[in-house]
Structure formats: C-alpha cells, structure tokens
Design brief:
64% of the residues lie in helices and 3% in strands. With 279 residues, the protein is mostly helical. The chain has a two-stranded parallel sheet with strand order 1-2. The longest helix has 35 residues.
Length: 279
C-alpha cells in the first residue's frame, strides 16, 4: 500500500533507550571493528609486530631503546618537521571525531560517555588523583621490569632542540589522552554494554568482557615497550574501566592520562639527565 511504513527488522533483543532501532547487533559489531581498525586496533597489531621483532633480535630487550615521539624530517629542516608533527597530531584525532559523529547518529552525543565539561571540578580532581596513582605505580613497574629485563628503555622524545618542541610535546600528551580514553574506554565500553543488552547477556558478564577487551587492547598497543609495560598498562586499563563503569565519565581519564604524559615528556626534557636511577 502506498505510503505504508515498513517496520525495521528485529534486532535480536531490546534496543537501549535513546539508540536508533536501526542499530542492530551486527551493525554495532561492524562499527566497533571499523573504528578500532582505523585507530588503536591497528596500533595493537603494529605494536605486537614490533615486540616480536625486539624479542627475536640478537640484543637483549633491555638493550633496545624505544622512543615515543620522533622527528619526521632532517634536523636542518625544522619547519618541515613541525609541519609533519602537526599533520600527524591532527589526523590521529580523526577517529575520535568519527566516534563523536557515530554517537550523534545513533541518537546520543559525546556527553553520553562523559566527554564534556559539565563537571569540571569533579573531572579535574578525580583526574589528578588518578594521575598520581597510575603515574607512581607506572614508574615503579617501569624501573622494576627494566631491571628484570622485561622492558625496553623508553626515551619519551628524540625531537631536536627547536622552539616548538614543548608545544608539540604538550599537544602529543593531549592527543594520546583523548585518542586512547575516548575510544578504548568510553566508546568501546559503551558500545559493548549496548551490544550485551541487545544480545540479552547478563550485565555482569557484559561488564567483565568489556573490561577485559578494553584493558587487553591497551596492553597490546603498548607491547612494543616490552612485556613489563604491557602488564602495567593492563592494570591501568582495568582501573580506568572500573572508574568509567562507576562514574560514567571519560573526561577524568583524559585529564589523568594527559597529566601523566606531560610529566613524562617534560620530565625527560628537563630532568632525565639528573636522574641517574632511571633507565
């Protein structure tokens, strides 16, 4: 009959409130796979390959340094290097923009995962406390695992001495924080929770699977640093996932991660030569 409305097909379970009926379990799984394939899922594969190369190299793992931020051009071409650094920063955040778009398209928003500034006091306080907890614990794990030969020495930055180094390192810290926490914690746990409801899984089982997948992915894309740091990031992932589950906000995690990276980058720039006990 002309003008008749055809109802959408059954999704296999109830659709969470505020989510389009057209977001089926299959589409949801495909969406998560594509987002991760364009971002930190690909990083996990690359990191695993790098780790396999490191452990099969003639030199011991503790003798193979790795860097977090490297130059993209020769030292005598600083403006080209700066241009490439900015290019890499901007395009690394495209998957985050994609996530925000996909949330909007499914009837939600970035506020759904707490990626907003409505609770600035709580976010900064909780973020600072988490940064202190994870930062101190991570430093202990790094030094200990290096002594045991499980971790590669990490050089936070090998950028040359240019006027723009500090701003670029600060931008790198913010980029890392936004990219990882929005996608691997906020988005992934939110979507996995929705998928569990659609499939009729018990809430507890869904939560356990979401935490294991999120924390496990974080460990994998840090595996290039060595087994010790992968385990440390696994623990960090579990803590961050618990916090997100408890408070429903990803912004404190972004702040905590950014603070940790800022301290690591600027500490390496100004203090590393004075701390002889660090690898």
């Amino acid at each position: 009959m002309t003008g008749a409305h055809t109802p959408p097909p059954e999704t296999g379970g109830p659709v969470p409130a505020g989510v389009s009926r057209h977001l089926t379990p299959g589409l949801l799984s495909a969406e998560m796979g594509l987002v991760l394939g364009l971002s930190l899922g690909a990083a996990a594969v690359s990191s695993t390959i790098s780790f396999l190369g490191a452990v099969t190299a003639p030199a011991a793992l503790a003798e193979q340094a790795t860097s977090l931020v490297d130059p993209h051009a020769a030292q005598e071409r600083p403006w080209l290097d700066l241009t490439r650094q900015l290019y890499a920063l901007v395009y690394a955040l495209v998957p985050v923009a994609l996530v925000v778009y996909l949330l909007r398209r499914s009837g939600e928003s970035r506020a759904t995962i707490g990626f907003d500034i409505r609770r600035r006091g709580f976010d900064f306080t909780a973020g600072a406390l988490l940064a202190a907890l994870i930062g101190i614990g991570g430093l202990v794990v790094y030094v200990t695992s290096y002594q045991l030969g499980w971790t590669r020495p990490i050089v936070p930055s090998t950028l040359n001495d240019h006027w723009w180094v500090v701003p670029v390192l600060l931008a790198q810290a913010l980029k890392n924080a936004v990219l990882e926490e929005v996608i691997v914690v906020g988005y992934l746990m939110h979507r996995l929770g929705q998928l569990g409801k659609m499939r009729g899984w018990p809430a507890r089982n869904t939560l356990i699977v979401a935490i294991l997948l999120s924390a496990g992915l974080r460990a994998l894309y840090h595996l290039y640093q060595g087994l010790g740091m992968a385990v440390g990031n696994l623990v960090m992932g579990v803590v961050f996932c618990w916090f997100y589950h408890r408070f429903g906000r990803v912004m404190p995690l972004v702040i905590a991660h950014a603070l940790i990276d800022v301290v690591a980058f600027l500490g390496a720039l100004y203090l590393l030569d004075t701390l002889s006990w660090l690898p």
